[in-house]
Amino acid sequence: MYTSEQIKDAAVRAVDAIVKDMESFPKGVISNEELLLLGGLQEPDDSCSVQEYKTWSGHYLSFRERWRDLMLERTGRYPATVHGKGFRILEPEQNIDYADTHVLTKIKKTAQKGLKIIRGTRASDLDDQGKRKRVAAELRMSQVHNIARSAHRQSLRERKFRNEPSPAPQTPPSLTPTNQD
Fold first, then answer.
1. Closest CA to 11 of 34, 36, 31, 29
2. Is the entire prediction scored with pTM above 0.70?
3. How far is CA 163 from CA 126, 157, 158, in A?
4. Sequence-separated (6 or more) residues with CB below 8 Å from residue 121
5. 3-class SS string, the chain
6. CA–CA gap between residue 95 and residue 123 (Å, rounded)
7. How far apart are CA 107 and CA 99, in angstroms?
8. Which of 31, 38, 81, 163 could form an SS bridge with 17, CB 3.0 to 4.6 Å?
């Protein structure tokens, strides 16, 4: 298995290789397999234990996040996940759209989920301190949800004003070429 330092070094190697030869990634697409290869990492084989695989999964998530941060820092371009395929390295204009729609939608839904959990907790199951804690948590989560919802609406209004299409929420960038590519 890999150490945390090896994972960090692998992310740096992958970024260096991609930045050095961006043209070899048509349309900014890089597969999971290519990313591992560029980082010098190998996925464990089928003979590994469940615990080893869980450790590997944690290391791989750390590697991806470190790689994403470094790519954004070094190139100003964010690698968005294309589920089941890999990543698409977004153009600078796409970075803004991604953050303004996809990320904002996730924030709104996460706050909504938090509210659902808090409100679903029965007050009758809590002592006095727990009830006060629940009320305070609901207030905080409601504020976060309302701000996120308002920001999301504002984003949609601005897109409409600019005559831009409103992308479907939670839709990752496609690997197939588009007319914009």
1. 36
2. yes
3. 50, 10, 8
4. 134
5. CCCHHHHHHHHHHHHHHHHHCHHHCHHHEEEHHHHHHHHCCCCCCCCCCHHHHHHHHHHHHHHHHHHHHHHHHHHCCCEEEECCCEEEECCHHHHHHHHHHHHHHHHHHHHHHHHHHHHHCCHHHCCHHHHHHHHHHHHHHHHHHHHHHHHHHHHHHHHHHCCCCCCCCCCCCCCCCCCCC
6. 43
7. 10
8. 38
pLDDT, tens digit, 9 for 90 and up, residues 12-44: 999 999 998 887 776 788 999 999 999 999 888
Q: Tokens 């964010």 map to which residue?
A: 78
Paired with 30 in beta bridges are: 87
> How many residues are given for the chain?
181
Here the tokens at position 170 are 């939670």
Plot region of 162 (φ>0 → left; ψ -120 to 50 → alpha; else → beta): alpha
Structure tokens that stand for 117 in this block: 């959990």
Question: In which region does residue 90 sit, left (phi positive, over 0), alpha (psi from -120 to 50) or beta (all else)?
Answer: beta
